[in-house]
Amino acid sequence: MTRTRWISLLGRYGVVVALLLLILFGWLRYDYFLGFFNISSVLRYNSMFALVALGMCFVIMTGGIDLSVGSTAALGSVVAALFSPQGTWIGLGAGVGAGLCVGLVNATLVTRLKIMPFIATLATMLAASGTALLLADNQSVSVSYDSGFTSIGQDNFFGFPIPAWIALAAYVAGWIILNFTSTGRGVLAVGGNEDATRMMGLPVGRIKFLVYLASGGLAGLAGVILASQFGAGQPIEGVGWELFAIAAVVVGGTLLTGGVGSVGATLAGVLLLGILFNVLNFENGKGWISLSAYWQSVIRGLFLLIVVVLQAKLAARGDAAVRDH
Amino acid sequence: MDTDILLSMTGIDKRFAGIPALSAASFTVARGEVHALIGQNGAGKSTLIKVLTGYHRRDAGEVTFDGKPFEVSSPQQAQANGISTIYQEINLVPYRSLTENICLGREKRRFGLLDWASMHREAENLLQRFNIRADVRRPLMEFNTATQQMVAIARAIGFSAKLVIMDEPTSSLDEREVGVLFNVIRQLKQDGVSVVFVSHKLDELYAVCDRVTIMRDGRTVKTARMDDIEKIDLVSSMLGRSMEKTEGHATAFTARDEKNIGKVLLSADNLAVGQIVQDVSFTIRSGEIAGFAGLLGAGRTETARLVFGIDRLKAGAMTYGDKRFEPRRPSDAIAAGMGFCTEDRKSEGIVPDMSVAENMMLALMPKLAKSGVIDEKAQQEIVKRFIRQLGIKCSGPDQKVRELSGGNQQKVLLGRWLAMNPRLLILDEPTRGIDVGAKGEIQSLIKSLADQGLAVLMISSELEEVIEGADRVFVLRDGISVAEFGRAAATEDALMGAMAHGNAPVVAEARI
Question: pLDDT tens digits for chain A (325 residues)?
Fold first, then answer.
């Protein structure tokens, strides 16, 4: 086993190991950590981030970035709330549709007008946020409690929260697309070497278009769950979601430069960062220490640093391997 | 042999911004033939290939391929029609598996999803044809360059190419790997696939090619069977010289006075790094202009990079002044009093949007700064002096370098290094891409600098420039310094002979 191989394995499975260790720690230390109530509330809350991170994962694998996901989710939640009186499905469709619209703009800016993803999605981030505030008239928009819209976010299905089922379905679909369709493999090829991929005759533009579109749609879906779960469309929610999503993707071992990534590890990354916060709450509950919620950011930041340093090492090894042959 | 023609290109013209890159070029490849395409830098080889693969649109001419007129507008389309190109920098995706690199673009599916098992099998089978057994699931970057090269070829064959174009495929392979590649080429030939082989290593052409087409100045000047042409003819056709003497002076270099030349400043013994530089030895004395001659890919620039500390030596040693010289990075060489004007001014030399003054001061900055603050006045004086001395035509020190002509840009670069007061200046193709008048000015400038005691290492692909300019000429061939000529012995015949055949016994008589 070469050192390169070792680091690459750590990059791939390190997040799963860390997740399991964290769960083990919580189980041994806190009484109700693995209780039904805690598990389902962690899953319910983090499923929104999971959806956003899934879209982000695909975008990052092409070597791009989508900064607009947080505001898109906020916009989605407002639009879904506004349409919720018309029925559950219409509210759901409207929220996702709003997300797809933002995704369409991103995709067009990046692939047709060749604007750098960072800049393009920064612009749509501001625009989506402004639109959400305009539509909501600068306050949260209550959803309809009569149409059954709230059951998306609040009810259970086979004992588990519906948002968790939605996220699970999305991840299974994402996994299949990434591993068993040519578009999925194309995503990784584009991120690994865009010029070579073009020379290979793959539809580079179409692949990139699709990932931004998907990222927008998933963010819209997260917005629907947000509105349904908290009973209101929230125009000022979603701030910093993009950073959480990027962190989760990177902690999951996906290279920020693109070309290498995993759907499963992204899910593990989301859970790791989410459960870290949960553990912190339990720790505060024990009364020994009193750590403010800000500590979660510090700890998440540390995790991110460790992973990025590991990735840099992996990349350096890889380059060396290519050079020395 | 011409009974079954696969590709025929006739009367191809291509102009870039009015300047002809190809003029009435013609190129014919028979089925199952390995055809070499050679020529100096800028001869039009890559333009011809890019016209063929649809990367460029031709301005005039006919192309027929496989019996039909051939019109493609992109490399993908060319690939779909049976022409695959393997580029010098391997165009694959390093993080992805061998299978993906071979099969992407024509995946196998079962029930609408990718059928990994059969794709892996196909990749294995394709590679096995070249006697490569590898775990096709591992990422490409874990394999050596030769295997990566084979993967590129396997990909080309997987697309059932009728013609495979290989652009300098051996430049990063070692001898054994080259052998494997040649076997692959012979096998392709047996299977009726044609190969266009671009290389600068003449021995390789004789080993594997059937015919050769030589290009010069955008024209295809000669096509011949490899059996019927001597190496020396290849070289002279590429350089455009007949073996007769050309009389008179072609450059602005004038005779030099021997007494300007001092003691040995730099001596390099048996330098080596990788495949490109294998065994290069030379010496340069103060006040001497030493020339490096050789074909493209002979290792001239790479040797200069070793001297300047850009690349690290794998073997060999250098002495500079009286001390052992082991530069680890360019700043070591600069500190020792060396300067390096690179061949590629645009990407490695000038900063186009900075002013003449800023460009000139870049290397000097660390010296001029007093506790981090740059002495503005001293800077202005130096810049003005060099603009005057070198005759740089600009509106003033603050004009942006991008607005200057090529010759004046080169002078700014010279100024940059001269401001350091160097003892040794390396000039890589100092007059390439510069108009005739400015060329002469640069050449006289080089001479007068040497007269003032500066040691100059001049790399040039123009024979007359090294012959008339250099006090001694070292000929490099395939990474080995094969011959050394003094001023009297450095004739075109002698130089071309050494480039073609190497190990010429002229070394002894040439020593002064």
Answer: 466 666 666 666 778 888 999 999 999 998 888 888 999 999 999 999 999 999 999 999 999 999 999 999 999 999 999 999 999 999 999 999 999 999 999 999 999 999 999 999 999 999 999 999 999 998 899 988 888 898 888 888 988 999 999 999 999 999 999 999 989 999 999 998 888 888 777 889 999 999 999 999 999 999 999 999 999 999 998 888 999 999 999 888 888 888 888 999 999 999 998 998 888 888 888 777 777 767 777 887 887 788 778 767 766 655 544 433 3
**Same domain? B445 vs B501:** yes
Chosen for mutation from B50, B104, B149, B151 (greatest number of chain A CBs closer than 10 Å) is: B104
Q: Which helix (H) or strand (E) holds B418?
A: helix B406-418
Q: What is the tally of structural domains in chain B?
A: 2
DSSP state of B462: -
DSSP label of B345:
I
Are B432 and B300 in contact by the 8 Å Cβ rule? The answer is: no
Q: How far is Cα of residue A237 from the mean position of the Cα atoms in its chain?
A: 15
Residue A64's domain is classified under what CATH number?
1.10.3470
Structural domain includes residue A8: no
Query: Which position has the higher pLDDT, B118 or B169?
Result: B118
Burial of B268 (0-12, 13-18, 19+ CB in 10 A): buried
Helix, strand and coil content of chain A, in percent to the nearest 5, comes to 75, 0, 20
Q: Are residues B213 and B298 in the same domain?
A: no
Structure tokens of B178?
């080259």
Residues of B in contact with A201 (CB under 8 A): 75-76, 79-80, 105
Comparing CA positions, the residue from B458, B357, B350 lying closest to residue B407 is B350
| Token output for B362 | 């870049």
Q: Is A179 on the interface with B (CB under 8 A)?
A: yes
How far apart are the CA of A6 and the nearest CA of chain B, in angstroms? 13
pLDDT of residue B289: 94
B104 touches chain A (CB under 8 A): yes
Q: ipTM of the predicted structure?
A: 0.78
CA of residue B375 relative to chain centroid, distance = 40
A50 CB-near residues (< 8 Å, 6+ apart)? A167, A170, A171, A267, A270, A271
What is the pLDDT of chain B when averaged over all its residues?
85
Closest partner residue to B92 among A179, A196, A325, by Cβ? A196
Domain count, chain A: 1
Q: Are A34 and A26 in contact (CB under 8 A)?
A: yes
CATH of the domain at B71: 3.40.50.300
d(CA A210, CA B161): 31
Please judge whether B104 and A192 are an interchain contact, meaning their C-beta atoms are less than 8 angstroms apart.
Answer: no
State the DSSP string of A281-294: HHHHHHTS----TH
Give residues with Cβ within 8 angstroms of B308, minimum separation 6.
B327, B330, B333, B338, B340, B426
Cα separation, A197 vs A194, in Å, equals: 5
Which residues form the domain of B489?
262-510
Greatest alpha-carbon pair distance for chain A in Å reads 67
Q: What is the DSSP letter of B92?
A: S
Q: Are B142 and B289 part of one and the same domain?
A: no
For A178, the domain range is 35-318
Cα B428 from Cα B413, distance rounded (Å):
12
**Tens of pLDDT along B239-268?**
876 444 444 567 778 777 777 888 999 999
For residues A183 and A159, the answer to whether their CB atoms sit within 8 Å is no
Cβ contact B287:B455 at 8 Å: yes
Instruction: Name B361's Cβ contacts closer than 8 Å, sequence gap at least 6.
Output: B368, B374, B379, B382, B383, B416, B419
